[in-house]
Design goal:
3 helices, two-stranded antiparallel ribbon, 36% strand
């Protein structure tokens, strides 16, 4: 693949090839393809990992038939032309097997993003990802925002955007609507912010 500055969009096939090559050479960069544009994603810090661990435990206690797949790639956006690397995808246990790096979103009940302390978090996690996941039809998008110390639950995707978004500060109880059907006590999230 040849990278040029005169072309704005990257095709999914080109992205997949570039991503495979990069994965063989480094584990310090994670790539995504949103709106035809190549994006890099920060490698998570330790507190980020603890948040995913916390959420995995919450999900397992409430719904043991589900699994939170960390740092999973998913085919996103209309017609699956995007490639998003979610911090977590909640789906029935075993449902993403045999698909390679970029799984089909069909069985996914919820996509999860935990903000990182980098310059493009606002555009990526708060704007691009909700739209991409809604276009894909993922029923729930959970944003754990360490900058604002808030949790936002997006639901009711209409193919363009999520029609419902509920934001609560860390420390409050938040209900993840069906088909997830889990209640989270978010007090512990206060321990993992700068």
């Amino acid at each position: 693949m040849t990278m040029t500055t005169d072309r704005v969009h990257v095709y999914p096939e080109e992205f997949d090839e570039f991503s495979r090559i990069l994965a063989r050479t480094t584990d310090r960069v994670r790539l995504e393809l949103i709106d035809g544009k190549l994006r890099s994603k920060a490698v998570p810090d330790g507190d980020h990992g603890l948040i995913i661990e916390w959420l995995t435990r919450q999900c397992m206690q409430s719904r043991p038939e589900l699994w939170l797949y960390p740092e999973q790639g998913v085919k996103a956006q209309a017609y699956r032309q995007g490639r998003a690397r979610a911090d977590g995808l909640l789906a029935p246990s075993g449902s993403i097997g045999g698909q390679g790096e970029w799984v089909d979103p069909g069985p996914v009940l919820m996509a999860v993003e935990v903000t990182s302390y980098d310059s493009d978090t606002d555009a990526r996690d708060r704007t691009e990802k909700p739209r991409a996941y809604a276009e894909t039809g993922i029923p729930v998008y959970l944003l754990i925002d360490r900058d604002s110390c808030e949790v936002t639950v997006y639901s009711e995707p209409d193919g363009v955007r999520y029609e419902s978004a509920r934001t609560v500060p860390f420390g409050k109880t938040v209900n993840l609507p069906d088909p997830v059907g889990i209640t989270l006590e978010t007090e512990q999230l206060k321990d993992w912010v700068r």
